[in-house]
Write a structure and sequence with these properties.
Pfam families: TetR_N
Helix content: over 70%
Strand content: under 5%
CATH topology: Tetracycline Repressor, domain 2
Keywords: DNA-binding, Transcription, Transcription regulation
Order of helices and strands: HHHHHHHHHH
DNA-binding region: 28-47
Domain HTH tetR-type: 5-65
Structural class: mainly alpha
Organism: Bradyrhizobium valentinum
Number of domains: 1
Amino acid sequence: MDQNDQKSDAILDAALPVFVRHGFRKTSMADIARAARMSRAALYLSFSSKEELFRAGSARAHARTMQNVEAALAADGDVFSRIESALAAFQRELVAPFAGSADAAELFDVNMTLARDITLGARARLVALLAQVLCDAEAYGAISLQVVEAKPADVAGMIVAAIEGIKDATNAGQSLDEGTRLFMRLLRAALSQNVPRS
């Protein structure tokens, strides 16, 4: 990592808690510069606007998260444990940092405005990865999709839709982890039907 990348990462690391504390609209470049322990002029040498900085933070977070998701899905363990670990990584890194903010809804909305392509690209990649894991698990006889009359890609899409719903419920005061664990129990119960017991 070169010096410019290190500087950008330090700025993005400093900016995240500022956005969480104040929300996007109320955060100024001066606030971020202060948190990063630099002058506003120095900050503007790295990022020309608050919008550019936020988008860069989203891009970095999504890239790192997807690496962790891929690692979780490739790890040892049964398919449900690996999916749960992958979803936990996705939520821990992309949802949890903002979920505790009083301005969580605004921050998620801003992300979809400024980094929609990044966010939707990561979601599409997550669906594709989950679909492949489900396809492989069905081929090995570890799950059965017959009972739900669905293809792996359909189930993968529903998993991602469900975690979006869990994120929204979290904003209403429910626990992200508890919601995900309940969903995974439901998924395990549904897809383990008609699977021969060894």
